[in-house]
Amino acid sequence: MDKTSKIFEGSALVGSGSCLPTQSLTNEQISHRVETSDSWIKSRTGIGTRRVVGENESLTTLSSNAAKAAIEMAGWSPKTIDLIVLATSTPDDLFGSAPQVQAQIGSKNAVAFDLTAACSGFLFALITAAQFLRNGTMKRAVVIGADQLSSWVDWDDRRTCVLFGDGAGAIALEATEHEKNGILGFELKSDGSRGECLRLSKTKNHLTLVDGSTYQKGEFQPIAMNGQEVYKFAVREVPAILQKLLDKENTSPADLDWLLLHQANQRILDSVAERFSIPHSKVLSNLKNYGNTSAATIPVMLDEAIRDSRIKPGNLIATSGFGAGLSWGAALIKWQGPT
Ligand code: UT7
Q: What is the CATH topology of the domain spanning 10-180?
């Protein structure tokens, strides 16, 4: 292997950022719309409040602000970025919102595209971006996880509307030599045969185009979820994929500094942590403040814990995302920080 290819054997996490909408919506406020209570929501999910995109904000602006913060922490000039991957299921534009993010952050040399894998989206995007860095074609990537599910929940369905919130988080990822590699291993899975239990699907809406021809008008139905099925899926598959990853990487749960799961429900976090005997103090959670922000939960949590110095350079983190598709995955990552 020549010297040039050697420097691209790994990818390092060197910056983080996040941006949440300014508008808060508490459990108590939701109880003015549907029959629910703060105590039911807190005891069943751990969620206390969430943020909702209001006027003068959008998925694109949240994503751009999160990306800018990550780039600033990394100490990069925006023009040096080669790749922007925006993981979202709720773009402002179905043709893709990543190019608008590219324009807003001034990364004119970056190729930018959206990636959809629901709540697993950030993890899938991180691994996708890492492949470009590891094969030597690119040096600097920004990976964003952002969602605005408030636009797509049925605010009159108490079984789903209490769970979700909006937000965006980002990571700056840099090609690096093998010794500084920050993505030590990963496992990704999909199972469309179980996809029915969590959908945001197109409305079957056939309209007449001209005599003898119809077309399907583009409209989506609100989120439909079988909560108990998704819960069972999460508590079964997340430990299984984490165990597979830890075995493959010859790592024991005791070696981990942090467990960072997709923030869907505190009971899911507690159940997975218990399965691996990981103490509560090592389980990152901000569910009480933001609820389930879909693709944003992992990078928002990462950024929060990096900025308040809970996560320190060199810390080993097991992370797992799971959700609609069905899709799920796990990665063993190391935070390096700005170089
Ligand atoms: O990113 C992945 C996204 N999704 C998830 O992670 C969801 C995973 N699932 C869950 O987190 C849980 O299944 C929920 C939090 C959604 C629901 O908790 P649960 O303990 O599974 O409740 P349940 O669906 O069994 O409902 C229990 C009761 C029902 O009443 P009855 O039939 O026993 O009289 C529901 O109607 O709670 C009722 N209920 C509520 N009550 C007050 C359901 N939602 C609410 C609510 N407020 N918001």
A: Peroxisomal Thiolase; Chain A, domain 1 (3.40.47)
Could you list the mean pLDDT of each consecutive 10-residue stretch along the chain, which spans 339 residues?
56 98 98 97 98 97 98 98 98 98 98 98 98 94 98 97 98 93 96 97 94 95 96 97 97 97 98 96 98 98 98 98 97 96
Report the C-alpha gap between 182 and 302 in whole angstroms. Answer: 14
Alpha carbon of 221 to those of 119, 167, 197, 324: distances in Å?
18, 21, 14, 15
Please name which of 180, 174, 185, 178 lies closest in space to residue 16, comparing C-alpha atoms.
174
Ligand 1 atom at shortest distance from the alpha carbon of 119: 1
State the Cα–Cα distance between residues 74 and 175, nearest whole angstrom. Answer: 13
Question: Which of 27, 34, 44, 272 has most ligand 1 atoms within 8 Å of CB, for mutation?
Answer: 44
